[in-house]
Amino acid sequence: MSYQHHIIKDRFDIQVTNPNEVTKATFELDKHADLLHGIAITSDSEPSVYYRGSQKIQVNDQELFPEDFESKLLMSGLNISPNNRMVRVGKIATGNGRVEIWYKDTDHPLQNFAPYRVTFYFFSKEMKK
Amino acid sequence: MRKFLIHTIELRKPQAKKSFQVKLPWTAKQVVGLHIDIQPNFHAPMDQLIADGFVEVGSIWLRLSGNRDVFYADTLGFPYARKKFDPTILPQGFIGRDDWWLTGTQFSFLKMTVPVESTLIEGYYEDQHENQRVDYNVKLYLELEINDRGSSI
Prior knowledge:
The structure holds 2 protein chains of 2 kinds.
Chain A lengths: L7 E9 L5 E7 L6 E9 L2 H7 E7 L2 E9 L16 E7 L4 E8 L10 E10 L4
Antiparallel strand pairs in A: 1-8, 2-7, 3-6, 3-8, 4-5, 4-7
Chain B lengths: L1 E10 L5 E7 L4 E13 L5 H6 L6 E7 L4 E8 L2 H7 L24 E6 L4 E8 L8 E11 L7
Antiparallel strand pairs in B: 1-8, 2-7, 3-6, 3-8, 4-5, 4-7
């Protein structure tokens, strides 16, 4: 579903350069994106995000996921069909959507820190007029 | 509209017993999902954890404060320790230490329908260790259905 041609895909990157820090970033969704359907998280170091990551996400000041919501709950591995890898969030009206993300890196005994990138994908649809 | 609430319980002593309360927003209608995660704060060899009885680390129950109705009770453990302990009885959707990328099923909250009449959920957590080092957090995720005229999830 997330790979259908009429789905608008927005990609935003956050660089995590220091351990145990919160990185805040603000992005704008595509101007044609009217309804947000899903979110996916990937990284160039998947274990780092899986074990160490958590985030708060807001769309237009509406909280989608609260602080300390673990990133691993929003990730999908290769075991999941590509068409099912986004986390569905319903249909959230986003006209001129502004996305705010507070990504928090936290020490974990199973994964040492090395700088890594976290990529957020937002899947939206254009409302038919 | 759906909203997530996260409550963290910190465990630092063996056999600790902790009562806690989770305050819900006054607009909460019902609890529709639940997930509990355990995060160790130190690294020990897995075989040692299992020998020390780390497979199951504690038990939890949750109840509504109004009618004292327990709606969830379970024993909890480190998932990757449980896998190494006995791989033949893996629960569906289990995620292992190094193979989470390749195995398991898509994560979803435990679905439930628990109408709430007050804004409090009471909980009780009991650690099961005897004298081993204890240093972990229990993270409780509640998915709530909220009365709201805004957008819906």
